[in-house]
Amino acid sequence: MSLAAVKNLGSKSKLETVVCDLCGSSDSRLKFTARNSEFNEPFNLVECHNCGLVYLNPRPTRDRIGRYYPEENYYAYQDLDSEDWNNFRQKVKSFILECQPGYAQNLTWLRRIVWSWFKRSLMVQVPYQKGGRILDVGCGNGFFLKWMQKHGWETHGVEISKAACQVAQRNGLEVFNGELQQAKFPPGYFDAITISQVLEHLHSPGRCLKECQRILKRRGRLIVGVPNLGSFEARLYQQHWFELDVPRHLYFFTAATLNRLLSQSGFRTKRLVSKTFGIPVCCKLRSTQRAVEAMAPSGVNPLKILMLFRFIWALSAVRFSQWLSPEKRRLMGVYLTAYTERA
């Protein structure tokens, strides 16, 4: 994207005012204002007075939101045949995935050890089902689907980005370019559906989940992964938290709001977990850097403030966790994953 385009982006972006997608209320309060990392545009995060859901309001319209997804370097659109995907990272991901029970033909002692170490680092874990039919909503370049296809699943994907769709289709994957509702899958078609790090991007998460309920078999599995606004890091960094990623992220879930949305969409939550392990250090440092830059008075060495902030972060995390019940402490990780079944 050219510099001129970046400068004109804010003025060209059309914003719309919306009501809460969870309860339909228009009664909300301003939580805080966060800035887009690329263009430094301010966006308001509001909290619904009725149900507590936090969402962007006003927000870019559907026809304008694509301007914030640079297809040439957005991580989910990288080609599977590129040097980056074809070497170290892809092999590491594949090896960890193959350590799951049911997926490895020979679950050696090494794979068992690796699984015990890394099972909490996976965003989603889909129990093995021979010959099962799976849909990945927002499949990006199709890495996950390609891996599932290799291990016996019949795979389908939905992806809004034309560029990402082309990458997936070049690799032999069946991917629909558009929104889930436009794909018009038949009722009760899938054994499992995954929505990993996608729900927060959608203009209507509730509408998407209701469509998932329609096309999923009875007692079929829906696995949803989202950033956790109730995490310790989100509470600490507030408007500087790296996972806000405004305006690409339109909704910001806690365990309570995610669970309520799933329930009213026709799903029973069997297990709700959170994770922090595996989050790149650069992401945490980015949150700290933003907070330091916002708080640092002129003339003070930012490095000293950075070191102090990290010390306070570590100390506060320990002390804060002592006041929480084991259940609440379990849900303080950066990401939430809900394992549900169709009611």
How would you describe what is shown here?
By secondary structure, this protein is α/β, with parallel strands linked by helices. Among the domains are: 175 residues, Rossmann fold (3-Layer(aba) Sandwich), CATH 3.40.50; 42 residues, no CATH class. It has 14 helices and 13 strands. It has a seven-stranded mixed sheet, sandwiched between helices. A four-stranded antiparallel sheet has the order 2-3-4-11, with no helix packed on it. Strands 1-5 form a two-stranded antiparallel ribbon. Strand 6, helix 6 and strand 7 form a beta-alpha-beta unit. The longest helix is centred in the C-terminal third of the chain and has 21 residues. The N and C termini lie far apart (45 Å). The N terminus is likely disordered.
What are the key terms here?
343 residues, seven-stranded mixed beta sheet, alpha/beta, Rossmann fold, globular, disordered N terminus, four-stranded antiparallel beta sheet, single chain, 14 helices
